[in-house]
């Protein structure tokens, strides 16, 4: 009986199973040391996501998220207006903080929003796209941009200048895409209004905003520590109900892609002439991102090409493609309750990915 449940779990968690299998194969072929495994882990990202899942489960259990989402929905005239506000907020915030932190702010609100399940899923995909598009305009928008900006040894203005025109076109395209995907249907709060005690509202507001603020300030370790301590004290049942499979998936994702970026030799597949040209490095970056993720691609290509802007641009565009191309994509889709969500993600992401690829390719010639 336990074996059957075990098999059903790995079928249901097929993406986790895929990363676990890849990890075993990498251990067999490359034999990375324990020190290497710890070095490829992005401790900040892993612990920040863990803390976010703890806070998210706690806010769900108290009813605070539904209360907050309903309050925002009541001030939106329709679903399209609500979606545009969420997309704009995510893209704007991703300019100043990393894209995963921008998602942490708005994904919980969309998840709890009183909208149809199919529209809610579209909004979550749009938030992932918005987080990656917003990261276009900032050297700190995602980890790979920080790495490549520092490697380029140029000032921020010079490094970001090539990104400005594509960002303007992509953000306008994203708003138009949002208007197409989310119709202006009425958004109404069904059932009896959610009434929370004022002290519960204040307490949860402090927990949610305080955790995000500590992450924004770079004090992620304090935020995670305080969040864990608070929920152990006030709501210990949160740790039984949170998504531990997602925690395992994130750990495996960083270790798998980190090992690949450490040992994978791309010179066997792409010539030095291709990697040394701007458009060649861009296309290789876009392609590798679909399989290695945006961060791993940047770490890998930085050793083979000096086209740092093209690599950064390719990794950012590539993150808009397949679900495994970016942690931001996985965060948004994983938290959805939609059936066949990983496959359905591409129904909405790939058209915008093709649009973004075309836009950036054309602007590189300007």
Describe this structure as you would to a colleague.
With 366 residues, the protein is mainly α. The chain has one domain (34-363). It has helices spanning 2-12, 14-30, 34-40, 43-62, 64-74, 79-96, 99-112, 117-134, 143-152, 156-181, 198-216, 220-234, 238-241, 244-263, 272-276, 278-292, 294-301, 308-318, 327-334, 341-363.
Salient structural properties:
single chain; 366 residues; mainly alpha; 20 helices
Termini separation = 63 Å
Q: Which descriptor suits the 3D outline? A: globular
Please tell me how large the radius of gyration is. 21 Å
Structural class of the secondary elements? Answer: mainly alpha
Proportion of strand residues: under 5%
Q: Report the mean per-residue pLDDT as an integer.
A: 83
Total DSSP helices: 20
Number of domains: 1
List SSEs in N-to-C order: HHHHHHHHHHHHHHHHHHHH
Helicity range: over 70%
Q: Would you identify the regions where 5 or more consecutive residues have pLDDT less than 50?
A: none
Number of strands: 0
How would a crystallographer describe the biggest sheet? Answer: none
Brief summary of the model shown:
The chain has 366 residues and is mainly alpha-helical.
How is the topology of this model organized?
Blueprint: H1 2-12, H2 14-30, H3 34-40, H4 43-62, H5 64-74, H6 79-96, H7 99-112, H8 117-134, H9 143-152, H10 156-181, H11 198-216, H12 220-234, H13 238-241, H14 244-263, H15 272-276, H16 278-292, H17 294-301, H18 308-318, H19 327-334, H20 341-363
């Amino acid at each position: 009986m336990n074996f059957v449940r075990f098999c059903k779990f790995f079928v249901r968690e097929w993406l986790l199973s895929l990363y676990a299998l890849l990890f075993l194969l990498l251990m067999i072929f490359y034999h990375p040391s324990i020190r290497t495994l710890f070095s490829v882990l992005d401790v900040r990202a892993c612990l920040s996501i863990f803390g976010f899942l703890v806070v998210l489960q706690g806010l769900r259990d108290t009813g605070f998220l539904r209360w907050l989402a309903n309050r925002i929905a009541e001030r939106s005239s329709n679903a399209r207006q609500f979606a545009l506000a969420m997309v704009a907020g995510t893209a704007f915030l991703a300019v100043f903080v990393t894209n995963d932190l921008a998602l942490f702010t708005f994904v919980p609100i969309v998840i709890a929003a009183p909208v149809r399940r199919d529209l809610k899923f579209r909004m979550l995909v749009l938030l992932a796209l918005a987080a990656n598009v917003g990261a276009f305009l900032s050297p700190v928008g995602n980890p790979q941009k920080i790495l490549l900006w520092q490697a380029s040894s140029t000032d921020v203005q010079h490094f970001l200048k090539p990104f400005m025109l594509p960002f303007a076109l992509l953000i306008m395209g994203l708003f138009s895409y949002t208007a197409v995907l989310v119709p202006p249907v009425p958004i109404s709060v069904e059932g009896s209004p959610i009434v929370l005690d004022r002290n519960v509202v204040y307490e949860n507001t402090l927990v949610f905003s305080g955790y995000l603020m500590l992450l924004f300030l770079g004090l992620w370790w304090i935020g995670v520590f305080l969040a864990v301590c608070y929920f152990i004290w006030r709501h210990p049942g949160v740790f039984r109900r949170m998504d531990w499979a997602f925690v395992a998936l994130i750990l495996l994702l960083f270790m798998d892609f980190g090992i690949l970026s450490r040992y994978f030799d791309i010179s066997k597949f792409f010539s030095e002439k291709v990697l040394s040209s701007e458009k060649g490095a861009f296309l290789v970056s876009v392609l590798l991102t679909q399989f290695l993720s945006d961060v791993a691609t940047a770490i890998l290509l930085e050793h083979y090409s000096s086209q740092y802007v093209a690599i950064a641009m390719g990794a950012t565009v590539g993150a808009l493609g397949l679900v495994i191309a970016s942690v931001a994509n996985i965060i948004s889709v994983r938290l959805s309750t939609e059936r066949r969500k990983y496959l359905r993600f591409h129904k909405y992401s790939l058209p915008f990915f093709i649009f973004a690829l075309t836009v950036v390719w054309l602007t590189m010639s300007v």
